[in-house]
Write a structure and sequence with these properties.
Blueprint: H1 2-19, H2 24-60
Length: about 60
């Protein structure tokens, strides 16, 4: 979780760069990093959902 927090801090940095009117390429690099982090988080959540929630639902479903 600390790794995720560290990665997501790139979003705060991008916001600060925007407020300070910094270079666009710096902001775009930070935004790309945040997007990549969110993609990884989304994939991890989906994997957990498939492994646990859907598997449990299938296991406990009643036959037709």
């Amino acid at each position: 979780m600390a790794h995720l927090q560290n990665d997501l801090s790139h979003g705060e940095i991008a916001k600060r760069l925007w407020e300070e009117r910094r270079y666009c390429d710096d902001m775009l690099t930070r935004i790309a990093t945040v997007r990549a982090v969110l993609d990884r988080v989304g994939k991890a959540i989906l994997e957990q959902h498939i492994q646990h929630c859907i598997a449990r639902s299938v296991k406990h479903s009643e036959p037709d």
